[in-house]
UniProtKB/TrEMBL annotation:
This is 65-kDa microtubule-associated protein 3. Keywords: Coiled coil, Microtubule. The keyword Amino-acid biosynthesis does not apply. PANTHER family: OS02G0126300 PROTEIN, PROTEIN REGULATOR OF CYTOKINESIS 1 PRC1-RELATED. Residues 476-492 have a biased composition (Basic and acidic residues). Residues 476-570 are annotated as: Disordered. It comes from the Eukaryota. Residues 519-542 have a biased composition (Low complexity). GO terms for molecular function: microtubule binding.
Length: 570
C-alpha cells in the first residue's frame, strides 16, 4: 500500500480513481513479486524524484512563460511610448496604458489590455507614414520637374512623424506648387509671345531653336532657352521693323513727290500706318515677313525708277511750289528758266559722261536743294505773316484813299440820283479809314522794325524795301497835304479878291449816268475829259503798283469794312 506521505507528495490534491487504482495495482504486484520494504521505499523514492523533476521542468517552463509575458508587456509599453514620441502624441497616452496595467490582476490580462492600444498606435503610425510618403513624393516630383539636375531628394524620416513636421512639409509643398503654377503661367506667356513673334515674322515655329519637349518643361534651363529665343526673335523683329519703316518713309516721300494716286497706294496703305508704330503695336500676321518686306522694297525700287523718268517734271513742280510760296510771301521769285537750264546741263553731262549714277546724283541734289528752299520759304512766309496781314489792310486803305481822291475831284459828287446814297456811304467809310492810315502806317513800321531786328535782314516786299515804301508814302502824303493846303489858300485869296461867292451849278440832266460814272470812279463829261482828269492827277507811287490795285470795288468794300472794324477795336 502507498503511504499517506507518498500520496501527499505525489498527489497533493484529491486523487482521481484511476490514479488510486494504479497505486493499488502497483502494491499488489510488489506483494506478488515479493519486493522488500526497502526496495519498495527506493522505488517509491525514485518515483518521487521523477515526480519532482516533472514539477521542476514545469515550474521552469512557467517561469519562462511568465518572463515572456512580462517582456511582451514591457516591449508593448515601450513601443507604445516610442510610437507616441514618433507621431507626436502626448505622454498622457502612455500613462493611461500603464495605469490600466496596474489595475489588472495577472500578466495575461495586462497583455490583453495593452495589445489593443498597441495595435491602435501602430495603425496611426502607418497612417501618418502614408501621409508623409504622399507629401514627400509630391515634393520630389515637383522639384524634379523644376530642377531635373538636382540629385538629392527628400526622404521620409521615420523618427519624426509629428503633425508639426507634416505641416512643414505641406507648407513647403504648397510653396512648390505656387512656384510651379507661376512657372507654368510664365511658360504659357513666353510660348504665346514666341508664337506671336513667329507669326509676325512669318516664321514656322519649328524654325526656332527650341526642343520639342520644351513646351511642357518648366525647368530653369527650359525657361532660359525660351527667354533667349524670344530675345533673338525680338532682335530680328526690331531690325526688320527698322528696315520696313525706312522703306515706308521713302515710299511716302515718293508718293508725295510724284502725287501717286490713291488707287496705287491702296496696296500698301494699311502697312503705311505702321511707320510710327512701336514694337508691341505690330501684331499682324506676316507683317514683318521677309516676303512682305521684299515686296515693299520692290515697290520702292519701282517708285525710284519712276522718279528718275519723271525727274524733270518733279523739278518743275517743286519750282512752281517754291515760287507760289514766295509769291504769297511777296519775296522775289526765281526764274523758272534757270532750273530748266540746270536740268538740261545735267542731261548733257549724262550724255557726255554716259554715267547714269552721276545724273541721278545731280538730279537728287537739285530736288534736295529745292526741298530745303521750300522749307526755308515756308518758314519765311510764316515769319512774315503778321506784317503781310497788316500790309494787306494798308493796301486796301490805299485803294480807298485813291478812290476818295478821285471822288473828291468829281464836281458832280453831290448830285442826287439812284445809288447816290451808296456812294456817299462808301465815301464816309473811306474818310474814316483814311484818317486812320497814319496810325496803320506807324503800326506797320513797328512790325517791320521788330521783324528786321529779330531776323537781322531787310524786309523786302516784291523786291523793294518795305520801310522805304512806307517812307515814300509818308513823304507823298505830306506833299499832298501841302498841295491841298496851297490850293485852299489860293482859292481863299481868289475869293477875297473878286468878292464873288461860289456858283452852284444845276444838276445834270442824266442823273443815272452821273451816278454810274461816280461809282466806277470816272467823270460824266466823256472819255476825253476823263482821260484829261486822269492825266492831271499826280502819278501813282511805286508802292501802289501791286496786284492789289486790280481788285474789284466789292472786294475793296469788304476789306474796308473789316479794316475799319479791326482798327476801331485797336
Amino acid at each position: 500500500m502507498v503511504s499517506l506521505k507518498l500520496r501527499a507528495i505525489l498527489f497533493p490534491f484529491q486523487m482521481e480513481p484511476r490514479r488510486e487504482m494504479l497505486l493499488q495495482e502497483l502494491g499488489e504486484m510488489w506483494d506478488e513479486i515479493g519486493e522488500t520494504e526497502e526496495d519498495r521505499r527506493e522505488m517509491l523514492h525514485a518515483l518521487e524524484e521523477d515526480c519532482l523533476n516533472v514539477y521542476r521542468v514545469k515550474v521552469a517552463q512557467v517561469k519562462q512563460y511568465r518572463a515572456q509575458l512580462q517582456r511582451e508587456i514591457a516591449d508593448s509599453v515601450a513601443e507604445v511610448a516610442a510610437i507616441c514620441a514618433t507621431i507626436g502624441e502626448p505622454s498622457t497616452t502612455v500613462h493611461i496604458a500603464c495605469s490600466s496595467l496596474q489595475s489588472t490582476g495577472n500578466l495575461k490580462e495586462e497583455l490583453g489590455s495593452i495589445t489593443p492600444e498597441l495595435e491602435e498606435m501602430r495603425r496611426r503610425r502607418e497612417e501618418r507614414r502614408r501621409k508623409f510618403s504622399e507629401v514627400t513624393e509630391l515634393i520630389n516630383r515637383i522639384e524634379q520637374e523644376m530642377k531635373p539636375s538636382k540629385q538629392l531628394h527628400l526622404t521620409m524620416d521615420n523618427s519624426d512623424l509629428t503633425i508639426r513636421r507634416l505641416e512643414e512639409l505641406r507648407a513647403y509643398l504648397q510653396d512648390l506648387q505656387l512656384e510651379k503654377d507661376s512657372r507654368v503661367r510664365k511658360m504659357t506667356e513666353l510660348m504665346g509671345s514666341l508664337h506671336s513673334s513667329s507669326l509676325v515674322l512669318g516664321m514656322d515655329f519649328r524654325e526656332t531653336n527650341l526642343h520639342h519637349d520644351d513646351e511642357g518643361d518648366i525647368s530653369d534651363d527650359a525657361i532660359a532657352r525660351l527667354v533667349s529665343e524670344i530675345g533673338r526673335l525680338r532682335e530680328i523683329k526690331r531690325n526688320r521693323m527698322q528696315k520696313l519703316q525706312d522703306l515706308l518713309a521713302t515710299m511716302l516721300d515718293l508718293w508725295n513727290l510724284m502725287d501717286t494716286p490713291s488707287e496705287e497706294q491702296k496696296r500698301f496703305q494699311s502697312v503705311a500706318c505702321n511707320i510710327a508704330a512701336s514694337e508691341d503695336e505690330i501684331t499682324e500676321r506676316d507683317a514683318l515677313s521677309m516676303e512682305f518686306i521684299n515686296n515693299v522694297e520692290a515697290e520702292v525700287v519701282r517708285l525710284e525708277r519712276l522718279k528718275e523718268c519723271r525727274m524733270k517734271d518733279l523739278v518743275l513742280k517743286k519750282y512752281d511750289e517754291l515760287n507760289e510760296i514766295r509769291r504769297r510771301a511777296h519775296v522775289p521769285v526765281e526764274n523758272e528758266d534757270d532750273a530748266m537750264m540746270m536740268f538740261d546741263a545735267i542731261d548733257s553731262d549724262f550724255r557726255v559722261c554716259m554715267t547714269h549714277c552721276f545724273a541721278d546724283a545731280k538730279r537728287s541734289l537739285i530736288l534736295e536743294r529745292l526741298e530745303v528752299q521750300i522749307s526755308e520759304a515756308k518758314d519765311e512766309e510764316f515769319s512774315r505773316k503778321d506784317v503781310l496781314e497788316k500790309m494787306e489792310k494798308w493796301q486796301a486803305a490805299l485803294e480807298e484813299e485813291s478812290w476818295l481822291e478821285e471822288y473828291n475831284r468829281n464836281e458832280n459828287r453831290y448830285n442826287v440820283g439812284k445809288g447816290t446814297h451808296l456812294v456817299l456811304k462808301r465815301a464816309e467809310k473811306a474818310r474814316a479809314l483814311v484818317s486812320k492810315m497814319p496810325a496803320m502806317a506807324e503800326a506797320l513800321i513797328t512790325k517791320v522794325v521788330a521783324w528786321e531786328k529779330e531776323r537781322g535782314a531787310k524786309f523786302e516786299y516784291d523786291g523793294d524795301g518795305l520801310l522805304d515804301m512806307l517812307e515814300e508814302y509818308n513823304n507823298t502824303r505830306k506833299e499832298k497835304e501841302q498841295e491841298r493846303k496851297r490850293q485852299r489858300d489860293q482859292r481863299r485869296m481868289l475869293g477875297q479878291g473878286t468878292g464873288e461867292s461860289p456858283v452852284v451849278r444845276p444838276p445834270p440832266k442824266n442823273i443815272k449816268n452821273v451816278t454810274r460814272t461816280l461809282s466806277m470812279g470816272g467823270s460824266s463829261t466823256g472819255g476825253k475829259k476823263a482821260s484829261a482828269s486822269v492825266s492831271s492827277r499826280p502819278s501813282t507811287p511805286s508802292f501802289l503798283k501791286s496786284p492789289m490795285s486790280a481788285r474789284r470795288s466789292d472786294e475793296g468794300q469788304m476789306l474796308l469794312s473789316r479794316a475799319v472794324e479791326e482798327d476801331d477795336l485797336l
